[in-house]
Amino acid sequence: MRKAQDVDVLKAAAAEIKSCRARAQISQEELAHRADVHRSFVARLEVAETQPSLAVLFRIADALGVAPAELVKSIAGRLKHERGDG
Q1: pLDDT tens digit at each of 86 positions of the chain
Q2: How far from the centroid of its chain's Cα atoms is residue 62's Cα?
Q3: How far apart are the C-alpha atoms of 77 and 24, rounded to whole Å?
Q4: How many CB atoms lie within 10 A of CB 35?
Q5: Inter-CA distances, 63 with 3, 10, 42, 59, 66, Å
Q6: Helix count and strand count (H, E) for the chain
Q7: What is the pTM (predicted TM-score) of this model?
Q8: Where are the alpha helices (DSSP H) in 39-84?
Q9: Domain residue ranges of the chain, discontinuous segments joined by +
Q10: pLDDT number for residue 48
């Protein structure tokens, strides 16, 4: 069982990845192709059922056209906002 704070991070990452994908106007399938992962993995990411490894997070960021550091910063900002810290 995941700790509550881990679930919060997964949910923030899921929402940010989905938001970035929507802004890029690409499908889950296209993101998966660009990041060299399976489409079902992207779907599970976007509903916070799984988490990417660091290497996959870098590939996802690249596939979305954002720097990995910016993606992580955006996830952290979303997490802070959702927790009411921001």
Answers
A1: 667 668 999 999 999 999 999 999 999 999 999 999 999 999 999 999 999 999 999 999 999 999 999 999 999 999 999 888 76
A2: 12
A3: 20
A4: 21
A5: 29, 19, 12, 6, 8
A6: 5, 0
A7: 0.90
A8: 39-46, 54-64, 68-82
A9: 4-79
A10: 95
Residue listed under structure tokens 């996959």: 56
Task: Give dist(CA 86, CA 82) in Å, integer.
Answer: 8
List the structure tokens of 22.
């929507």
On the 0-12 / 13-18 / 19+ scale of CB atoms within 10 A, 64 is buried
- Which pLDDT belongs to residue 3? 73
Q: Are 75 and 68 in contact (CB under 8 A)?
A: no
CATH class of the domain at 4-79: mainly alpha
